[in-house]
Amino acid sequence: MTDHYCVLGNPVAHSRSPAIHAQFAAQSGQDVVYEALLAPLEGFADTVHGFIAAGGKGANVTVPFKEEAFRLSNRLSARAERAGAVNTLTFTADEIAGDNTDGAGLVRDIEANLGFPLAGKRILLLGAGGAARGVIAPLLACKPAGLTIANRSADKAQALAEQFSDIAAVDAGNFAKTAGSRFDVIINATSASLAGEALPLPAGIFAPGSLAYDMMYGKGETPFLALARAQGAAHLADGLGMLVEQAAEAFLVWRGVRPDSRPVLAALRTQLAA
Ligand code: NDP
Q1: Catalytic residues
Q2: pTM of this structure
């Protein structure tokens, strides 16, 4: 029997998740279909319950519902609990289980796909919204030399650092506070690139050999990656690999099979460039 999954968002028509999961299913011989489902802004829970009633087995959750999905879950994985947000729901007869695969997806993209081990590295995370929160614990689990969070609103960065202080000491402040420091990995988890805006980052923060990673992806270079290139970052990456890897991790959660993400990422990259 075919199992049904979906991605829930608003908007959602642009989502690449159906195409990614279709390729995972074909590759692994799993009998699943995966669709994009638009949930009304005030109707997320109803849409989830409707999908469950129709026999749905699981759902990915995207903007703006990840925190609502967290609250709707009857059981949370440790990483979802830490993230305070859920991007992967699994439905069984008596529960809605919430997980978060965003952080695992980011780390896998950086370490496995880009070949950039994070242990011992000085990491700067830009942003203090949902995406930033979801990746902090997975980044700290890689044992970096240090993690700094910088955000336009410094108080939000400080609050986040405090929340994770039981794992490791995390520096926090506004963008200007990074002046005089150097980082091996700088990750943009702000939505500034969505608006086509560059961040006001001080000069000299990219260490020699550093990686600049923008969670945003799209056609052409993002403003953050253009700035990183101009400031001498050695490696540049957008968030397409994170997107595919968080999907692969969700597929593993649901089906118990880790798909081969590389051909899927390569195909998506070709499509995006066309
Ligand atoms: P949120 O709305 O939760 O957070 C937005 C963050 O961006 C805040 O830290 C905010 O700062 C900051 N910000 C917004 N505009 C500006 C600006 N003009 N200048 C400086 N800072 C700004 O968004 P998310 O955390 O959910 O998403 C962030 C990004 O990550 C998005 O681009 C999203 O597409 C991407 N993403 C990619 C994924 C992938 O798989 N590749 C997965 C998840 C997210 P302040 O607190 O001061 O308002």
Answers
A1: 66
A2: 0.96
We report the CATH number of the domain holding residue 41 as: 3.40.50.10860
DSSP 8-state assignment for residue 153? S
Q: How many domains does the chain have?
A: 2
Query: Closest ligand 1 atom to the C-alpha of 131?
Result: 25
Work out the pLDDT band at 27, boundaries 50, 70, 90.
very high
Q: How large is the average pLDDT for residues 141-159?
A: 98
Cα–ligand 1 centroid distance for 58 (angstroms): 26
pLDDT band at residue 159 under the 50/70/90 scheme: very high
**Ligand 1, from 16, 88, 190, 268: best to mutate by most atoms within 8 Å of Cβ?**
190
Q: What domain range includes position 174?
A: 103-238
| Distance of alpha carbon 161 from alpha carbon 164, whole angstroms | 5
Q: Is 125 helix (H, G, I), strand (E, B) or coil?
A: strand
Stated as kind and residue range, the H or E segment containing 211 is strand 206-214
At 195 the pLDDT is 87
- Inter-CA distances, 6 with 115, 138, 147, Å: 31, 25, 34
